[in-house]
Amino acid sequence: MKNVTDPFLSLGYWPSAGSFGFNTDILATNPINLSVVLGVLIFFGKGVLSDLLDNRKQRILKTIRNSEELRGGALEQLEKARARLLKVELEADQFRVNGYSEIEREKWNLINSTAKTLEQLENYKNETIHFEQQRAINQVRQRVFQQALQGALGTLNSCLNNELHLRTISTNIGMFEMMKEITD
């Protein structure tokens, strides 16, 4: 039977028997090692690498589909948001217009009520002035009447003496008696 190690012995220089060493001939060992490693990797790794690449491809495709769905949903939400924004802007414009109209209406109502209040105050002022004028006139009349009465009494008291006084009283009593007889 042939020795299994015979082919390897002829490939390079082996040190003397009984010792262990390395083959330092780079040109002889590297291409062989690389071809063996590559051959084993390709033979055994082809299925694993293919599965890994297929799984990665499926994950990428799934991520792309999810991204497309999310993009579609986001676009739909964006359109809805734009529609709501437009609606809100229109409502805001309407509120603004209505608000300005309401403010203008309130302004005119306030101006009108203030004008009415001022007119009422003017009327109250005029009535108060008229009342005060009448009161002043009445006070002046009373004073004039009191002074005239005091003057008349003073004149009567100075002009009347006892005799004239008794004669006036007798005349007045006579007039009362005649009136009494007429009424009876």
Automatic annotation (TrEMBL):
GO molecular function: proton-transporting ATP synthase activity, rotational mechanism
Domain of life: Eukaryota
UniProt KW Repeat keyword: no
Span of the signal peptide: none
GO cellular component: chloroplast thylakoid membrane; proton-transporting ATP synthase complex
Location of the protein in the cell: Membrane; Plastid, Chloroplast thylakoid membrane
Alphabetical keyword list: ATP synthesis, CF(0), Chloroplast, Coiled coil, Hydrogen ion transport, Ion transport, Membrane, Plastid, Thylakoid, Transmembrane, Transmembrane helix, Transport
Entries under Pfam families matching the protein: ATP-synt_B
Keyword Transport among record annotations: yes
Alphabetical list of InterPro entries matching this protein: ATP_synth_b/b'su_bac/chlpt (IPR002146)
Chain coiled-coil ranges: 64-98
Bilayer-spanning residue ranges: 32-53
Stated family: Belongs to the ATPase B chain family.
General function of this protein: Component of the F(0) channel, it forms part of the peripheral stalk, linking F(1) to F(0).
Quaternary state and interactors: F-type ATPases have 2 components, F(1) - the catalytic core - and F(0) - the membrane proton channel. F(1) has five subunits: alpha(3), beta(3), gamma(1), delta(1), epsilon(1). F(0) has four main subunits: a(1), b(1), b'(1) and c(10-14). The alpha and beta chains form an alternating ring which encloses part of the gamma chain. F(1) is attached to F(0) by a central stalk formed by the gamma and epsilon chains, while a peripheral stalk is formed by the delta, b and b' chains.
Miscellaneous section: In plastids the F-type ATPase is also known as CF(1)CF(0).
PANTHER family listed in its UniProt record: ATP SYNTHASE SUBUNIT B, CHLOROPLASTIC (PTHR34264)
Protein name: ATP synthase subunit b, chloroplastic
Annotated source species: Lozanella enantiophylla
